[in-house]
């Protein structure tokens, strides 16, 4: 099992979990079940991933087989952009819980600080970027006039009701994090951000540490996840797996250490939680045990930090015709 970090509400969260983004539906239940058998206890999902029913099937099988109890697991989901109105927040989480087959999730994020037009569940779920036949045909993402504070307070009501144990925020910049701290009644326990050596976001990471908000990294391997999405920036960028600095550091620690392990340990050694995905059992196990397998020197950490280019691959500005500068 992974090491645990204590969140600001006292809950213990594994430092290493399995990210469920892009796990195909047909193999998702089996991969979740196998990951639990290997020792994974945190599963990071979302409305938008479209595979929560299968994640739930894997969890149920592991519980039925008495490998784990529900209390052993730390299950994460995320509110999608189409459900930001307060009256829709609970609707979304109830659907998440129904698909997962659970009574509560341990951590529930606001996925993006963007409010899309509401799409009824019976019309299309998950809605993704869909907002209606007319808008979709024109390639337009329709937005809602709803403030983030209103959405956040609806999330706090979910904690009061026991549907979620903790609130998280995702893809927020420093100003939005500071704003949440000004209006929240229940403090967010975590901020999930794109985080890798090409995008270290050092000031944001330090600010969150000062305010006892756990940083959780997604896309720890940089451009890797975005090449298959046909991102031109990702395709044109040197893969971190092949970067000379990362390869040199991996070689210095022995032939059995991979560049992927170096990238993951770079994050966890600095207190950043990670949620890498893999379909291979041996790599899943290597990811889970990376803290036991590898310790980087201070100089190696600095070398990797110096690869920063402020290069972001998950860029909402490029989504369809939605020119929305979240991170600028």
UniProtKB/TrEMBL annotation:
Entry keyword Transit peptide: no
NADP-dependent oxidoreductase domain residues: 16-308
Molecular function, one GO term: oxidoreductase activity, acting on the CH-OH group of donors, NAD or NADP as acceptor
InterPro entries: AKR (IPR020471), Aldo/ket_reductase_CS (IPR018170), NAD(P)_OxRdtase_dom_sf (IPR036812), NADP_OxRdtase_dom (IPR023210)
Record site: Lowers pKa of active site Tyr: 78
Pfam families documented for this protein: Aldo_ket_red
Active-site residues per Swiss-Prot or TrEMBL entry: 49
Positions annotated to bind substrate: 111
Key words of the record: Oxidoreductase
Gene3D superfamilies noted in UniProt: NADP-dependent oxidoreductase domain
Family, per entry: Belongs to the aldo/keto reductase family.
Protein name in the entry: Similar to Saccharomyces cerevisiae YHR104W GRE3 Aldose reductase involved in methylglyoxal, d-xylose, arabinose, and galactose metabolism
Organism this protein belongs to: Maudiozyma barnettii
């Amino acid at each position: 099992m992974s090491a645990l970090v204590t969140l600001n509400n006292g809950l213990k969260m594994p430092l290493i979990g399995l990210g469920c983004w892009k796990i195909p539906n047909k193999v998702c239940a089996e991969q979740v079940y196998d990951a639990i058998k290997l020792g994974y206890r945190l599963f990071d999902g979302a409305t938008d991933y479209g595979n929560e029913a299968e994640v739930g099937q894997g969890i149920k099988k592991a519980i039925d087989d008495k490998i784990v109890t529900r209390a052993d697991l730390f299950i994460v989901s995320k509110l999608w952009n189409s459900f930001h109105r307060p009256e829709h927040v609970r609707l979304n989480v109830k659907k998440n819980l129904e698909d997962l087959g659970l009574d509560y999730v341990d951590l529930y994020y606001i996925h993006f600080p963007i409010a899309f037009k509401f799409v009824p569940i019976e019309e299309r779920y998950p809605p993704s970027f869909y907002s209606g036949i007319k808008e979709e045909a024109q390639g337009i993402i329709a937005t809602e006039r709803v403030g983030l504070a209103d959405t956040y307070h609806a999330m706090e009501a979910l904690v009061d009701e026991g549907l979620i144990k903790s609130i998280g925020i995702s893809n927020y910049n420093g100003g939005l994090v500071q704003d949440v701290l000004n209006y929240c009644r229940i403090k967010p326990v975590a901020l999930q951000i794109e985080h890798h050596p090409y995008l270290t976001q050092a000031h944001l990471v330090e600010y969150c540490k000062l305010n006892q908000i756990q940083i959780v990294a997604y896309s720890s391997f940089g451009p890797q996840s975005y090449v298959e999405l046909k991102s031109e920036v990702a395709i044109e960028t040197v893969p971190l797996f092949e970067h000379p600095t990362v390869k040199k550091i991996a070689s210095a620690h022995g032939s059995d250490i991979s560049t992927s392990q170096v990238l993951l340990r770079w994050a966890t050694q600095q207190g950043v939680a990670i949620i890498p995905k893999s379909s291979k059992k041996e790599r899943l196990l290597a990811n889970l045990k990376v803290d036991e397998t590898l310790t980087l020197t201070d100089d190696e950490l600095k070398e990797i930090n110096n690869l920063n280019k402020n290069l972001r691959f998950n860029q909402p500005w490029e989504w369809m015709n939605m020119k929305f500068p979240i991170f600028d």
